[in-house]
Specification:
Order of helices and strands: HEEHEEEEEEH
Number of helices: 3
Number of domains: 2
Helix content: 25-40%
Low-confidence stretches: 11-42
Shape: elongated
Number of strands: 8
């Protein structure tokens, strides 16, 4: 009898935890199985469209860390040419969907001999990445508004 009671209590706690996870997770699944952004009940402290667009645009690079509450995404170093590696850091500063809410830094390493050395950050690529993220974020926002 005690076994069944313990099993029932554990089952209730587990099921209750599942409903908590649904409220915590900021993305829902639409009919096509793609992620969509929810405004209400989201744990994001930053603009959710900028956050999702940043993750989408950096999906080809392995992530070192991401902090949705702090609005920081850091990628691992990724080799793009035989003598070049890049690392991207994205900072999202607010809930606003504005250009000044986003900053992208692209760090670069060059292979000289057998040693990777830090090179000047690639400001042009950083600006292009910012623009791509902003464009994607606006598209996500418009898609979300149109489906309401």
């Amino acid at each position: 009898m005690k076994k069944y009671l313990c099993l029932a209590v554990i089952s209730v706690l587990f099921l209750n935890g599942c409903s908590y996870m649904q409220n915590w997770w900021p993305f829902g699944d639409d009919a096509a199985g793609k992620e969509t952004i929810q405004d209400e009940g989201s744990y994001l402290a930053v603009n959710p469209y900028l956050w999702q667009a940043s993750l989408d645009k950096l999906a080809f690079m392995p992530l070192a860390s991401s902090d949705a509450k702090g609005g920081v995404i850091v990628t691992e170093w990724k080799k793009f040419a035989s003598n070049e590696q890049l690392k991207v850091v994205v900072n999202i500063y607010s809930q606003n969907l504005q250009a000044n809410s986003l900053k992208v830094e692209v760090y670069k390493k060059m292979l000289k001999g057998n040693t990777w050395t830090e090179a000047a950050p690639d400001e042009k690529l950083a600006l292009e990445t910012e623009n791509a993220i902003l464009t994607q974020a606006r598209e996500l926002y418009h898609r979300d508004v149109m489906t309401r």
